[in-house]
Amino acid sequence: MAIAxxxxxxxxxxxxxxxxxxxxxxxKEMGIQTVTVHSEADRDSLHVRFADQSxxxxxxxxxxxxxxxxxxxxxxxxxxxxxxxxxYGFLAESSYFAEICEACNIKFIGPRSSVIKLMGDKVEARRxxxxxxxxxxxxxxxxxxxxxxxxxxxxxxxxxVIIKAAAGGGGRGMRIVRTEAELGQALETASxxxxxxxxxxxxxxxxxxxxxxxVEIQVMADxxxxxxxxxxxxxxxxxxxxxxxxEAPSPALSRExxxxxxxxxxxxxxxxxxxxxxxxxxxxxxxxxFYFMEMNxxxxxxxxxxxxxxxxxxxxxxxxxxxxxxxxxxxxxxxFAGHSIECRINAEDPEKFTPSPGLITxxxxxxxxxxxxxxxIYPGYFVPPYYDSLIAKxxxxxxxxxxxxxxxRRALESMVIEGIKTTIPLHLxxxxxxxxxxxxxxxxFLEEFFERQSGAGGVRIANA
Length: 464
What we know:
Elements: E1 10-13, H1 17-30, E2 33-39, H2 46-50, E3 53-58, H3 69-78, E4 83-85, H4 95-103, E5 107-108, H5 113-120, H6 122-131, H7 147-157, E6 161-165, E7 175-177, H8 180-198, E8 203-207, E9 213-221, E10 227-239, E11 242-248, H9 255-271, E12 276-284, E13 290-296, H10 303-310, H11 314-322, E14 339-346, E15 358-359, E16 362-364, E17 371-375, E18 382-383, E19 390-398, H12 401-413, E20 416-418, H13 424-431, H14 434-438, H15 445-455
Helix pairs in contact: 4-5, 7-8, 12-13
């Protein structure tokens, strides 16, 4: 017997900044009331202003506010919401938080807690993907127990290898090892870093791909076993495993490879009982081979580029799926049109990559054909020093990649943020870089870019 769809009256958004505003916009279009939570540092934020209700849940540090599960659940119960949308970051991939929501009869807008837990453990995720027929890199089937075991596996795999945190991501608990002599120290350092960052020191080892591209497949699945993919995003422009620029489609994929990677991602999601939005991330080797890296069980920062080329509203679909609706479209209904690029605008010194919090004295948000800006800043807004430095996402869409690059350059030139330093000047230089324009690059792009800049006379990246 089919379960009647549940209709949400009110959703709590357990996040802040631009993603909280993005979820508010989707809810407003769907006629759903919103409740936001905020720290003391975010009292004047736009996600507080534009929600129907907002509740302060603690002091500025994340551990005392946005990561404070009892405070978030209390806010949800006080305001009598039907569901919680976690956005990305903070509690978005916490299986414990999702489990608490389930126990409190509050719908978590995301996959089930058991699936989040499975995908959150990188070793278990690798095992599950291998069983689902997804290509994985040669590596340890279980967390490493001893240095001797690591040496034996490294010899079997062949150097270079990479050590990764079993419970983490974002480059923490990760070390590249090129010789056997380096392995012991790298293992200890990675484990200690993982323990500090994720309270879990387990690490595993796998073959290191020297010049891969980072390509991810966006999936959407309902609670009835239906699953589709919305194409890929290329996230190869990154620094220390933190993405800076994303684009869709990838310049490196043929139609045949795109369809193959999409089928693999969809089949993997079906095998693990996945529902809601998710991203299956792959390393793409120079020979066209691809390997599972990890799965993000949430909406991604870079989801707008997929929305631009497919016309799919990913956040709206997340909510509809959580309400118990079947997907409104099949794979053959998905369209791919044009090219989209996203630049992450961070409050950072673009030369040193150090945070640049402070008061925004003036700003101009660009517009015009094919330009979208997801942000929560405004003139007079104080960028707090407590959270991620992302303050805006500048997204463009055009018929071709060349035109998208030209459009991004034009939009960056008219984007003004004064009072703090931002990465806008860096993005402008990347748009002018011949290697980027060619579309032929790897995850080493940024370090090679800076080498080219240095070789050209040490060109400084000046803030506008």
